[in-house]
Design brief:
By secondary structure, this protein is an alpha/beta fold. It folds into three domains: 31 residues; 191 residues, 3 Solenoid (Pectate Lyase C-like), CATH 2.160.20; 209 residues, Pectate Lyase C-like. It contains five helices and 30 strands. β29 and β30 form a beta hairpin. The protein is elongated. The chain binds 2-acetamido-2-deoxy-beta-D-glucopyranose (10 copies). One 2-acetamido-2-deoxy-beta-D-glucopyranose binds next to β5 and β10. InterPro entries: GH28_Enzymes, Glyco_hydro_28, PbH1, Pectin_lyas_fold, Pectin_lyase_fold/virulence. This is Polygalacturonase. GO terms for molecular function: hydrolase activity, hydrolyzing O-glycosyl compounds. It comes from Penstemon smallii.
């Protein structure tokens, strides 16, 4: 008995002990990881941040400041705050003559359907404040197509308005302590792909026919469509923004699209999106020509941009009202398909002129500098193919980079030649030591001083002092190879 009992006892004790040991170990591991998890959260998220959020005092930028909660706002990530935003905007609209009003959005998740801003208003997003676009299209009002597009852009007829919208305003500021506007784009991209939408998707922020606009120090993410769309505006400043969307599978999530705007600055932004980082536009074919409002006097500087689908900075393809006097400087484009692109087509009309790119850095970019003149995407068949755009006076100065496949592809055509292009001080590290990677056709212009890789033969060569070294044999040589 003893002999048999002891081992039995021993065994059961051992089983008892080992299960408890397992249990204790499991408990310990759970405890350990919980502590780790909480520690991690304390560093980046919930716990300690909550205290930091409320302790970071919000500046008072207008004579009157409201809190969204004053109007019944609830930041629980579920309740709709559309009415609270509308009541707040209504209250601020009465303060115009007294210097306007500020609406503070405290930390929390504030779901809302689209709402309109008013003049002399500052929307201030506290650290940890997330304004979330309600992703049910039934709550998104339809608006007429933009006059210079004559078309929703994706569908004829009306289009969805933007989540945060403004028309005919003056003196509007959207800023904060890096609070976020989240467009819940995933729902929209999916429905778009499945062709479930009957109207063009809405931008995240669209300000139309307005002046003196500032958008700064916030994060915008996952827009249903273009992220920021200033339309026919004057005096717009955009700075210190982070604009994010997945780099693939997020169709048309351009970062910032100045459209028929003048006197605009875009600076110190980080943009990584599913389409163009910035795309300067001015209307589409016959509608844009008739509307006739150019984009001009635009300064873009100190941007870091990533675009796997399109380009870091684009002009066009909708440019029918004309684009002129644009400077792009101190731009860093990384892991992207293209760095800077001008795109147009017969039918657009208009012009792109007086464009200067200075101090650009390309890092791991497939094609660096691109001009494309056959971007044949049209609103309808009524466009006039004889309305050819003029492309001229374009400067590329101090262009550097590494891991670039095709540094230059300027594809002018007989109908749309590219005139008066200047390259000065360029050195781009290339991934392939192949000829014809500096591709040109129907381009007239010059290379001044040292330019690497060797330029195409369409261009005249000048030395540093501006003396002609070698005149181009022909501007019309075509050496474009899209396979490469
Ligand atoms: C806004 O109201 C909430 C709730 O009353 C409060 O916790 C928060 O501190 C207020 N924030 C500001 C910026 O006034
Ligand atoms: C914003 O204002 C415009 C112009 O009045 C209007 O068409 C649109 O429906 C308004 N949007 C909302 C969400 O009220
Ligand atoms: C703002 O928030 C974004 C997204 O969380 C972050 O990537 C960025 O670094 C923040 N910017 C600043 C200045 O803290
Ligand atoms: C699109 O139109 C179809 C047919 O009129 C309709 O059944 C469907 O509900 C509409 N979808 C949306 C998202 O409005
Ligand atoms: C441009 O807008 C800013 C911000 O509202 C304002 O301070 C400035 O005076 C405006 N500039 C001009 C020339 O109107
Ligand atoms: C805006 O962001 C920049 C860069 O992060 C920072 O230097 C500046 O102080 C911020 N402005 C405000 C009002 O927080
Ligand atoms: C070109 O745009 C800049 C702003 O980027 C402006 O200062 C300048 O006056 C403009 N030049 C002309 C000729 O309009
Ligand atoms: C060129 O741009 C980079 C940012 O891409 C910046 O760090 C550098 O200071 C700029 N150089 C000049 C001379 O402005
Ligand atoms: C070429 O463009 C530059 C500006 O980029 C301008 O100063 C110059 O006058 C233009 N030359 C011709 C011949 O049009
Ligand atoms: C080059 O093409 C243009 C049309 O784009 C034409 O006007 C010009 O005469 C051509 N030049 C040569 C040398 O073939």
């Amino acid at each position: 008995m003893v002999e048999t009992l002891t081992p039995t006892l021993n065994r059961s004790w051992m089983i008892f002990f080992s299960t408890h040991k397992t249990l204790l170990t499991a408990l310990f591991i759970t405890f350990f990881f919980t502590v780790l998890y909480l520690q991690r959260d304390a560093g980046t998220g919930v716990l300690i941040f909550r205290r930091e959020f409320s302790s970071r005092k919000l500046p008072k930028l207008r004579p009157v400041a409201y809190n969204l909660t004053d109007f019944g706002g609830v930041g629980d990530g579920v309740i709709l705050n559309t009415a609270a935003f509308e009541r707040a905007v209504m209250a601020i609209s009465k303060l115009g003559k007294k210097g306007g009003g500020q609406l503070n959005v405290p930390p929390g998740n504030w779901v809302t359907a689209p709402f309109n801003l008013t003049s002399h208003m500052t929307l201030f997003l506290a650290e940890g404040a997330v304004v979330i676009g309600y992703d049910n299209e039934k709550y998104w009002p339809l608006m007429p197509p933009l006059p210079s597009y004559g078309y929703g852009r994706e569908h004829p007829g009306p289009r969805y308005g933007s989540l945060i919208h403004g028309q005919n305003l003056k003196d509007v500021v959207i800023t904060g302590h890096n609070g976020t506007i989240d467009g819940r784009g995933r729902t929209w991209w999916k429905k778009y792909r499945q062709k479930l939408l009957n109207h063009t998707r809405g931008p995240l922020v669209q300000i139309m026919w307005s002046s003196d606009i500032v958008i700064s120090n916030i994060t915008l993410r996952d827009s249903p469509f273009w992220t920021i769309h200033p339309y026919d505006c004057k005096n717009v400043t955009i700075r210190h923004l982070t604009i994010l969307a997945p780099i693939t599978g997020a169709p048309n999530t351009d970062g910032i699209d100045p459209d028929s705007c003048e006197d605009m600055v875009i600076e110190d932004c980080y943009i990584s999106v599913g389409d163009d980082g910035v795309a300067i536009k001015s209307g589409w074919d016959q509608y844009g020509i008739a509307y006739g409002r150019p984009s001009k006097n635009i300064l873009i500087r100190n941007l870091v941009v990533r675009s796997m689908v399109s380009a870091g900075i684009s002009i066009g393809s909708e440019m029918s009202g004309g684009v002129s006097n644009v400077t792009v400087e101190n731009l860093h484009v990384w892991n992207s398909r293209r760095a800077v692109r001008i795109k147009t087509a017969p039918g657009r009309g208009g012009y792109v002129r007086h464009i200067t790119y200075r101090n650009l850095t390309f890092d791991n970019v497939r094609v660096g500098i691109v001009i494309k003149t056959d971007y044949n995407e049209h609103p309808d068949k009524e466009f006039d193919p004889k309305a050819v755009p003029v492309l001229e006076d374009i400067n590329y100065i101090s262009i550097h980079g590494e891991r670039v496949r095709v540094p230059v592809r300027i594809h002018g055509s007989e109908d749309i030649p590219v005139r008066n292009v200047t390259f000065r001080d360029m050195s781009i590290g290339i991934t392939y030591k192949k000829k014809h990677i500096f591709q040109c056709s129907f381009v007239e212009g010059r290379v001044v001083g040292s330019v690497f890789p060797a330029p195409c033969e369409n261009l005249d060569l000048y030395d540093e002092r501006g003396n002609l070294v070698k005149k181009s044999a022909s501007h019309n040589i075509s050496d474009i190879d899209y396979d490469f």
